[in-house]
Amino acid sequence: MGMIPFYTRFRDLAFQEMRSATTQRWEDLPDGDYGFLEFYCDDSQCDCRRVLIQVIAQRKPTKVLATINYGWASEAFYYRRLGDAELAQACTKPTLDPLNPQSKYAPALLRLFETVVQDKAYVQRLQRHYALFKGQGKNVARQDARTTSPRRRRK
Asked: Phi/psi of residue 121, each to 5°?
């Protein structure tokens, strides 16, 4: 199972909707603009409901400063898949990925992600991007239309 950048399949959308943050006097982090690039699993049979996020700085876009794992499903979902309560709990919150590049700024970037970047709208965007990446885009678009369209009152 490989993790593939979202922008390889949906270039325009990926860069249009990429989450970014600008910092000033943020603890342990140089002032600047940071982008959060999304990577998804390319196994069509896998339903891992997670994203790998690489954080880059605008001033050095080819250097990965942090790699964050994030899963949005419930702890019970991950427990059924993994059979390990500790691993399941870890999947439900952002963590630094131990197998991928990290810089000395990684812990501060994780805190930035947790406190500023990761909001409800962003999590919904990640879920939508995941569904698109997995080829479920049409179903997601229909579901979004149903949940966001105004409801008419019955008389």
From this structure: -65, -40
Q: CB neighbours of 10 closer than 8 A, spacing ≥ 6?
A: 129, 132, 133
Q: What is the pTM of this model?
A: 0.83
Q: How many residues in the chain? A: 155
Q: What pLDDT digit, counting tens, does each position of 76-95 carry?
A: 999 999 999 999 999 999 99
Q: H helices then E strands: how many in the chain?
A: 6, 6
Q: Are 95 and 17 in contact (CB under 8 A)?
A: no
Domain boundaries, the chain: 3-145
CA distance 70 to 93: 6
**Cα–Cα distance, 155 to 51 (Å, whole number):** 44
